[in-house]
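hiii so um. not sure if this is the right channel but i have a protein structure encoded as tokens and i wanna go backwards to a sequence. like what aa goes where. can anyone help
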């Protein structure tokens, strides 16, 4: 199983980026998909998750109201739309997949994509 994250880059404060993560899961629609991030010298942080059909989402407190997670089950892809970016959003962003949102950290992981927010 492979999860391929993309879309990271350099953006100015207040700007936007859209991350994508495509998974080689035969039963993609049966997995909860999530995003985590890790900044240099900091612990991994939960960012967002979307459940099987996309009807239910969850967000970390630091990004609620600015980030939106969504999925396209026809393309085996999960997205993270990031708006109003701040320097504190600078991190490597990882996607993860697991049948249960409670066990996302124990599931499949992508390789990460770097987001840098410059002031």
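sure thing!! here u go:
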């Amino acid at each position: 199983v492979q999860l391929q994250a993309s879309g990271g880059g350099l953006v100015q404060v207040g700007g936007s980026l859209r991350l994508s993560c495509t998974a080689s899961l035969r039963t993609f629609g049966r997995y909860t998909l999530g995003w985590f991030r890790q900044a240099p010298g900091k612990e991994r942080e939960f960012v967002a998750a979307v459940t099987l059909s996309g009807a239910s989402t969850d967000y970390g407190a630091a990004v609620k109201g600015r980030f939106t997670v969504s999925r396209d089950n026809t393309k085996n892809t999960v997205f993270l739309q990031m708006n109003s970016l701040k320097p504190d959003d600078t991190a490597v962003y990882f996607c993860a997949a697991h049948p249960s949102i409670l066990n996302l950290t124990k599931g499949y992981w992508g390789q990460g994509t770097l987001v840098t927010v410059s002031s």
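oh and The chain is about 0% helix and 50% strand.
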